Automatic annotation (TrEMBL):
The keyword Thylakoid does not apply. It comes from Lutibacter flavus. It holds the Pfam family Glyoxalase. Residues 10-157 form the VOC domain. PROSITE patterns: VOC (PS51819). Coiled coil: none annotated. This is Lactoylglutathione lyase family protein. One of its GO terms (biological process) is L-methylmalonyl-CoA metabolic process.
Amino acid sequence: MTTNKNYPKSFSHIGITVPNIKEAVKFYSEVMGWYIIMGPSKVKKEKETAIGQMCIDVFGNDWTEFEIAHLATSDGIGIELFSFPNGIKEAPEFNPFNTGLFHFCVQDPNIEELIDKILSYGGKQRMPIREYYPNDKPFKMCYVEDPFGIVFEIYTHSYELTYSSGAYSK
């Protein structure tokens, strides 16, 4: 008999393709405050290196080089930025109804200040700031875009607090 020892896996990182690696590192480090672990560097398609072979495995053979940078959030989640010389350099079509990654979410108790900063760096606010539980919990949220058109969400409180009953009482 086999025992199912399932447990929640932790989140390691997310990979985001951007049109300009230097601008993206600037935005995410200055606006989001994410730590730069490894600044922009080039990866070349070469079978002789571990990283080159790994990238051939992931991306196939239709590339020659790309740029990559690694950042980290305050809680250690990795942000892996990619910039390829070929490919579409426009924002992806926003279509949450199709299968695929819809958005990621960051948390900041000062949602208004973060949105102002996003706007000052060329990003967009996609909706008004909304409260999840008006007159009950002080939890707010808003969807925004970075300057490259990548949609993400902002919460003022943790995921667990936002969705658990009794997480906040006046």
